[in-house]
Amino acid sequence: MPPSNEPVQQKVLHKSPREPHPYPDEAIEFVRQGLGYTIDKVHTTKTDPGASRHVTGQQLCHGLCEFALMQWGLMARTVLARWNILSTLDFGKIVFALIDAGQMQKTPDDCLEDFRNVYEFRSAFELRYRIHLQGVS
């Protein structure tokens, strides 16, 4: 799901009265930034600028977990919950809202179900969290 080449709008998504979304702009911006982080991580060895930089829903979910832990440590789950992100499916809902708004692209194989139950938030954000100290192995 690479970002589209469209210019970034002032508001990331415009809520329509028909289909309001429960995610604040900060959550949407987090997913956009996390997509960039994930693309860079997954495609670090690609040198061809024309090569596909697509990532799967599962890859994006794992990248967003790492990105959140890097930013907020053990508070990551709390920050995401404040933004109504309680499961990996919420990441998918944000991604597909961005796709619908023309701000991300998808392949014909991408679907919302790719984001369902990728991992359980408590274990991903709390039980597996490790503090990495520089110079200590």
Structural class: mainly alpha
Approximately how much beta-strand content do the residues carry? under 5%
Overall pLDDT: 83
The major sheet is characterized as: none
N-to-C span: 35 Å
Question: Measured on Cα atoms, how large is the radius of gyration?
Answer: 15 Å
Order of SSEs: HHHHH
- Share of residues in helices: 40-55%
**Counting H and I runs of at least 4 residues, what is the number of helices?**
5
pLDDT under 50 segments (min length 5)?
A: 2-12
Quick one: how many beta strands? 0
Overall geometric form:
globular
Oligomer state of the chains in this structure: single chain
Tag the structure with descriptive keywords:
mainly alpha, globular, disordered N terminus, 137 residues
How would you summarize this macromolecular structure in one to three sentences?
By secondary structure, the protein is an all-alpha fold. The chain is built from five helices and no strands.
Helices and strands in order, then pairings?
Elements: H1 25-42, H2 57-72, H3 76-82, H4 88-100, H5 121-127
Please provide a written account of the structure.
The chain is mostly helical and 137 residues long. It has a domain at 25-41 and 54-127. Helix content is 45%, strand content 0%. It has helices spanning 25-42, 57-72, 76-82, 88-100, 121-127. The radius of gyration is 15 Å and the shape is globular. The model is unreliable at 2-12 (pLDDT under 50).
